[in-house]
Design brief:
The protein has helices spanning 21-32, 44-58, 74-84, 109-137, 158-177, 197-200, 207-211, 217-229, 239-250, 253-264; strands at 12-16, 36-41, 62-66, 91-94, 140-145, 183-188, 193-194, 215-216, 234-235. The protein has 267 residues and is an alpha/beta fold. The strands form 2 sheets. A 7-stranded parallel sheet has the order 3-2-1-4-5-6-9, with helices on both faces. Helix 4 links the parallel strand 4 and strand 5 (140-145). Helix 1 (21-32) crosses helix 8 (217-229), helix 3 packs parallel to helix 4 (109-137) and helix 4 runs parallel beside helix 5. The chain starts with 11 loop residues before the first strand and ends with a helix. Residues 1-7 have low confidence and may be disordered.
Length: 267
């Protein structure tokens, strides 16, 4: 599945967290629209399985690269891989990320620092590496997966909400910087989505997931792809999520924090 030369005339998209959840669904949408792929995740076996599925169904080339974005040097190794394989990355999808629920004074600091590394530092580093060649070519797209969590403080998931606020702010600022370069940046901000995220974040019993409704990853990914291809800076799938995001922008911050805590609490 990995060739030394990428001779395909198709464009190539790199997707982090591309072996499952929203990342895999985004990879499917990209493949259906005739993009070749570079899939990045921690486990090579799951990457190989996903790549084989996508190649067989859509007739594209799917390269795989196993990397742990908790490691600070991982973004550089990914960039070096693409460079050494002469793979030109036309679309960068920064999807990898994870959360952690609980009171900040009780949660595991190692997991939270790893979260900052993956959700913030690795995303920033990959963008720093792959965007300059796009600007030089005057063509490219970046899709950063944020969350509706980006629009308010998040008690009981304080660090996660803060990381997504960073992703949104960074994406909107970079989109403006790149306005006249031919490169677009889109922040995708889904609400609760049916993936393994909630279980890993220890929040499956929260009101947010039990009461507010859960979207499916395929529809979220379709929405995000369409927004990216249209060059939109902000993509919030679902009318309820749009209303909540706009309400949080207007509401007093203390009220937003209180309501977010109620959503994160279990019944």
């Amino acid at each position: 599945m990995v060739s030394k030369l990428n001779r395909s005339p198709r464009q190539t998209a790199l997707v982090t967290g591309g072996s499952g959840g929203i990342g895999l669904e985004l990879a499917k949408v990209l493949a259906r629209h005739h993009f070749d792929l570079v899939l990045v995740a921690r486990k090579r076996d799951t990457l190989e399985a996903a790549a084989g599925q996508l190649e067989g169904k859509y007739g594209i080339t799917a390269h795989v690269f196993a990397a742990d974005l908790r490691e600070p040097d991982a973004p550089q190794t990914i960039f070096d891989f693409a460079t050494n394989e002469t793979i030109e990355i036309n679309v960068l999808v920064n999807n990898a990320g994870f959360g952690l629920g609980g009171e900040f004074v009780e949660t595991d600091v190692k997991r939270e620092l790893d979260m900052i590394q993956v959700n913030v530092s690795a995303l920033t580093h990959l963008t720093k590496l792959f965007v300059p060649p796009m600007v030089k070519r005057q063509s490219g797209r970046v899709l950063n997966v944020a969350s509706t969590a980006a629009f308010q403080p998040g008690p009981l998931m304080a660090v996660y909400y803060a990381t997504k606020a960073y992703v949104l702010s960074f994406s909107e600022a970079l989109a403006e910087e790149l306005r006249n370069t031919g490169v677009t940046v889109t922040a995708l901000c889904p609400g609760p989505t049916a993936t393994s995220f909630a279980e890993a974040a220890e929040m499956t019993n929260s009101r947010l997931f039990k009461t507010f409704g859960v979207a499916d990853a395929a529809s979220v990914s379709e929405y995000g792809f369409d927004a990216m291809m249209r060059g939109k800076r902000l993509a919030i799938p679902g009318i309820r999520n749009k209303i909540v995001a706009q309400a949080n922008r207007l509401a007093p911050r203390a009220l937003s924090a209180r309501l977010a805590r109620l959503a994160q609490e279990t019944r």
